[in-house]
Amino acid sequence: QLYTPDAILIDRVLEGVKRGRDEIQAYLERVMLNEMPALYPIYDWHTIEGNTVTNGMINRFDNPDPQGEPLDFFGVTVQVYAGDGLW
Fold first, then answer.
1. For residue 80, how many other CB atoms are within 10 A of its CB?
2. Angle at 31 between CA 85 and CA 39, to 5 degrees
């Protein structure tokens, strides 16, 4: 609900471009709640320049082998603030 009605989400790994608040919400709920609920981000860094916020994170899956290292991959999010509490 924090995205503008015409927001664009680009997922380079899974599904490409999602357009509009409703399509983005459906995608994020499906992926984060159903397909990858065990995935969680670990904050790494951020920058703020003008109305653009960029952050880096480690996306982590716990290894099913208790002796194994976590399964990590790096992610970057770039969001442009549109005003009125929306991105």
1. 13
2. 95
